[in-house]
């Protein structure tokens, strides 16, 4: 099977600090991959590179067989222009740690915005779609409320609905529950789990919720200091960790 | 001359010009402020340069001198403007420079996460500005723009120096003929204050309206 996403020899540095060091990483269609590891190990950067929020210093990323940051024109690799990036982004959606809802729009408008302005859907159609999606994440009764009036868990569920209506093939979840109060984590994980189980979307989940990763991931990759230190099935990673670094990391979650 | 007669005389002769200059210069200032504020953040160096030259010149020199320059110097270069046009142009250009800094700083104050969310939703740069960034920046601009508008209204008294018969000019005339100095200039203060009231009230209402739902 050919990978849907393929990182090849990716290096990303901020000044002197190398956050990703020559990463090779493939993700296969429909796969649910969890990225775990300490803060600053490069997990989030890996997702941000795929969402085109940042550009790698070297290496290439391929999505559905096409270069993300580079495109091939007459056999030559050239830097992708805005048009190419927009074409590539159609396949990718992202949910952020801090939600980033549009504060000046109601819940419903937040979810309708991109289908109308980006995909050119009629308002009526976009509205139906948005209502359906919000119903699915359990917010069918909050359509006309502004984000400021929602709890963190509700905000994140709106953000998930907003990303899902764009029907991406690949969904990135960047620590979707890390900014939430502990009692609100469950409702968001429940929604993500539901999506993971019922859809064949490819999912990349960055998380510190180990039980959750164990439950929904097909594969878990452990990041440490800008490299993938270990990867395997949840069973291999959580029950039989090989590297001492992963053993120490996991021991902090199971005291 | 009674206080009432002074009021009528000022309102009859000067009020129209003051309102005309205030309104036209305010529209010009807001338009220029918007354009040059955005131009300040352009990716093209030349556009940024032109915009910052404009801002520095009009912020860095006196409004009164700018008025004199447009009314008395430009004709020597063959450009003849009516006093009204010169007044509106000078005040509009001057306040436009201040407004542009308000526009720029408000746009830059919108959190970068909003931009990232737009990119993740595949919006173009224009869609992002129009639908997400500017509406949020606008709310932050309103109090400062309101201050500028009131400041602009008060500055219009300077146009009396280039022969326009605005409120202040008319007050000077009245004073020279009647010597009712206390009454005349007190009434003048009151009239400026009364014109300013709906301006600040209006900006308050606008702020409430556009920040609906937000805490």
Describe this structure in words.
- The complex is a heterodimer of chains A (255) and B (215).
- Chain A has 255 residues and is of the alpha/beta class.
- Chain A has helices spanning 43-50, 82-89, 107-117, 123-136, 152-164, 182-198, 210-216, 234-239, 244-251, and strands spanning 5-14, 17-27, 32-36, 58-63, 66-67, 70-73, 76-79, 92-95, 170-174, 202-206, 219-224, 227-232.
- In chain A, strand 9 (170-174), helix 6 and strand 10 form a beta-alpha-beta unit.
- The longest helix of chain A is centred in the last third of the chain and has 17 residues, at 182-198.
- Chain B is an all-alpha fold.
- Chain B has a single domain (3-209), classed as MetI-like (MetI-like fold, Orthogonal Bundle).
- Helix content of chain B is 80%, strand content 0%.
- Chain B has helices at 3-13, 15-39, 45-60, 63-73, 83-109, 112-120, 125-155, 167-178, 181-210.
- Chain B starts with a helix and ends in a 5-residue tail after the last helix.
- The chains are: A alpha/beta (255), B mainly alpha (215).
Largest sheet of chain B: none
Give the CATH superfamily of chain B.
MetI-like
Strand order of the largest sheet of chain A: 8-9-10-3-11-12
Total helices of chain B: the number is 9
**What structural class should be given to the helix and strand makeup of chain B?**
mainly alpha
Could you say which structural class the secondary elements and strand pairing of chain A correspond to? alpha/beta
List unreliable stretches of 5+ residues of chain A: none
> What name does CATH use for the topology of chain B?
MetI-like fold
Number of DSSP E strands of chain B: 0
Keywords:
heterodimer; A: alpha/beta; four-stranded antiparallel beta sheet; 12 strands; globular; B: 215 residues; mainly alpha
SSE inventory with pairings:
The complex is a heterodimer of chains A (255) and B (215).
Chain A: E1 5-14, E2 17-27, E3 32-36, H1 43-50, E4 58-63, E5 66-67, E6 70-73, E7 76-79, H2 82-89, E8 92-95, H3 107-117, H4 123-136, H5 152-164, E9 170-174, H6 182-198, E10 202-206, H7 210-216, E11 219-224, E12 227-232, H8 234-239, H9 244-251
Parallel strand pairs in A: 3-10, 3-11, 8-9, 9-10
Antiparallel strand pairs in A: 1-2, 1-4, 4-5, 6-7, 11-12
Chain B: H1 3-13, H2 15-39, H3 45-60, H4 63-73, H5 83-109, H6 112-120, H7 125-155, H8 167-178, H9 181-210
Helix pairs in contact in B: 1-8, 1-9, 2-5, 2-7, 3-5, 4-5, 5-7, 6-7, 7-9, 8-9
């Amino acid at each position: 099977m050919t990978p849907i996403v393929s990182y090849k020899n990716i290096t990303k540095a901020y000044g002197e600090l190398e956050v990703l060091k020559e990463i090779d990483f493939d993700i296969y269609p429909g796969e649910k991959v969890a990225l775990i590891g300490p803060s600053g190990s490069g997990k989030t950067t890996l997702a941000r590179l795929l969402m085109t929020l940042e550009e790698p210093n070297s290496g290439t990323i391929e999505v559905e067989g096409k270069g993300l940051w580079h495109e091939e024109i007459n056999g030559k690799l050239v830097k992708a222009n805005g048009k190419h990036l927009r074409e590539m982004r159609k396949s990718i959606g992202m949910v952020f740690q801090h939600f980033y809802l549009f504060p000046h729009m109601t819940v419903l408008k937040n979810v309708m915005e991109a289908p109308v302005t980006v995909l050119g859907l009629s308002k009526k159609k976009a509205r139906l779609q948005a209502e359906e999606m919000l119903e699915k994440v359990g917010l069918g009764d909050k359509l006309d409320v502004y984000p400021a009036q929602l709890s963190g868990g509700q905000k994140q569920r709106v953000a998930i609905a907003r990303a899902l209506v764009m029907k991406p093939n690949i969904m990135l979840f960047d620590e979707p529950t890390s900014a939430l109060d502990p009692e609100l984590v469950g409702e968001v994980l429940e929604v993500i789990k539901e999506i993971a189980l019922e859809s064949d979307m490819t999912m990349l989940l960055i998380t510190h919720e180990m039980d959750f990763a164990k439950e929904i991931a097909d594969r878990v990759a452990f990041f440490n200091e800008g490299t993938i230190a270990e990867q395997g099935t949840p069973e291999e990673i959580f029950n039989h960790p090989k590297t001492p670094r992963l053993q120490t990391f996991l021991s902090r979650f199971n005291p | 001359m009674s206080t009432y007669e002074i009021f009528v005389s000022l309102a009859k002769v000067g009020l129209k010009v003051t309102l005309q200059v205030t309104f036209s210069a305010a529209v010009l200032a807001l338009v220029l402020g918007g354009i040059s504020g955005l131009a300040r953040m352009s990716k093209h160096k030349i556009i940024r340069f032109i915009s910052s030259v404009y801002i520095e010149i009009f912020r860095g020199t006196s409004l009164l001198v700018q008025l004199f320059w447009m009314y008395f110097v430009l004709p020597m270069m063959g450009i003849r403007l009516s006093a009204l046009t010169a007044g509106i142009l000078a005040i509009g250009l001057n306040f436009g420079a201040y407004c542009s800094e308000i526009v720029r700083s408000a746009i830059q104050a919108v959190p970068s996460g909003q931009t990232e969310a737009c990119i993740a939703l595949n919006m173009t740069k224009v869609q992002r500005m129009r639908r997400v960034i500017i509406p949020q920046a606008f709310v932050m601009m309103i109090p400062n723009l309101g201050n500028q508008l009131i400041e602009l209204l008060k500055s219009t008294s300077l146009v009396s120096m280039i022969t326009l018969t605005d409120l202040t000019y008319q007050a000077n005339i009245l004073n020279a003929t009647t010597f009712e100095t206390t009454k005349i200039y007190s009434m003048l203060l009151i009239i400026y204050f009364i014109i300013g009231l709906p301006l600040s009230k209006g900006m308050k209402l606008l702020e409430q309206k556009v920040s609906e739902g937000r805490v």
